[in-house]
Amino acid sequence: MAATTPARERTRREIVRQAMDLFQAGGYNATSLQDIATAAGCSKATVLYHFSGKPAVLAAVLEPAAADVAALVKAAAELSRADAQELAIQSFIDLAVVHRGVVDVLQDILPVIEQMPEVAQLVADGMQLSNYLAGSDDPLEQDLAKFAINGLLGECRHAQERTDDDLRRLCDIALRRILRRA
C-alpha cells in the first residue's frame, strides 16, 4: 500500500507551487500573501500557519535551487582551483537550465536580496560559486564571472526562446569564452 501524503504537507506544497507561479508571472513584490492563498485554494491564515510570512514562502520556493547550489559549492571546495572551476562551469549550466523559473524570481528580488535573511545562505553560496567560476583571485576574473552569471541568468529567463539543449550549448560556449581557464 502506498503511503499517503498528509493533508498539511499537500497544502504546504500547493502553497509553494502557487507562490512560484505567481512570483514568476507577476513578481515577488507584486504578489501578496492573499494572492498566494487564493491561488492555493486556502485562506491567508493557512498560508501563515505554514510560513511566517512572504519571505518564508520565498525561501521555500527557492529551497530546491538553494540546495543544489549548496551541494555544488560543497563539492567544489574539495577540488583544486582548476577542477573547481570546471565543475562550477558544468554545474552552473545545468542549474541555470533546471531552475529557469527560480531565475525569474531571483531577478525580481536581486536589488534587495542581501536584506533578506531567509535567503542569506543562498546569497553566500552564490558568491562562492562566482569565485569558483572565476578560477582566480584576480579582480578582473571575478568581475568577468559575475558578468557571465548575470548575462546567462538573463538568457535563462526566456524559456520560450531556446530549448534546454540550445541554452546549455549557449551557456557552455559563453562561460568558456568569457572565463579564463585557470
Describe the structure concisely for a colleague.
The chain has helices at residues 7-26, 33-40, 44-50, 54-77, 81-98, 100-109, 120-134, 139-156, 164-178. The chain is mainly α and 182 residues long.
Structural description of this entry:
This protein is mostly helical. It has nine helices and no strands. It has helices spanning about 5-25, 35-40, 45-50, 55-75, 80-100, 100-110, 120-135, 140-155, 165-180. Helix 4 packs antiparallel against helix 5 and helix 5 crosses helix 7 (about 120-135).
Number of E-type strands:
0
How many helices? 9
Q: Mean pLDDT, nearest integer?
A: 89
Structural Rg: 18 Å
Main sheet specs: none
β-strand amount: under 5%
Low-confidence stretches: none
- Class by helix and strand content? mainly alpha
What string gives the helices and strands in order? HHHHHHHHH
Helical proportion, percent range: over 70%
Please tell me what the overall shape is.
elongated
How far is the first residue's CA from the last residue's CA?
54 Å
Sequence-ordered SSE layout with sheet pairings:
Elements: H1 7-26, H2 33-40, H3 44-50, H4 54-77, H5 81-98, H6 100-109, H7 120-134, H8 139-156, H9 164-178
List keywords for this structure.
182 residues; elongated; 9 helices; mainly alpha
